[in-house]
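Final report, closing paragraph on structural work. Over the funding period we assembled a curated collection of sequence-structure pairs, and we close with a single example.
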Amino acid sequence: MLEFANYNPIEIMQMLSAIFFSIVFFQSSIDKILDRKGNIEFFEEHFKTTLLNKVLSPLLSLLTFLELIAACICMYGLFYSLLYQNTDFIFYGLVTSGIVLLMLLFGQRIAKDYAGAADITIYFILCAITILSYNIKG
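Its predicted structure, as stored:
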């Protein structure tokens, strides 16, 4: 079997996915924290004709918190895998990332932003395939 630094290709992909989702969700959550006002304004416009427009601030806070948690678990999983050659924590980060992506998809569909929903689907596919890789015995 092919290996690189004592990791098989599946573990390497799991680690790369952890890096990917750490970048995605750290950037997104930090943006929501540093530019909360701008994000609220965007969300007000984006969701103005939906029921979500009445609860935007708490939903933005929840989304920000979950994005930050997903990024942290993925990053912790990466470091854990480098120290102990075990990618179990990456799995938990990916599951959390999948939940966040479903929340984002729900918002896009409610807002009838189908192009935005399609963009999220690509991220979700990567997440799902990487989660499924935990069922493959190498």
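Residues 9-39+54-135 form one domain. Residues 56-84 form the longest helix (29 residues). We thank the funder for supporting this effort.
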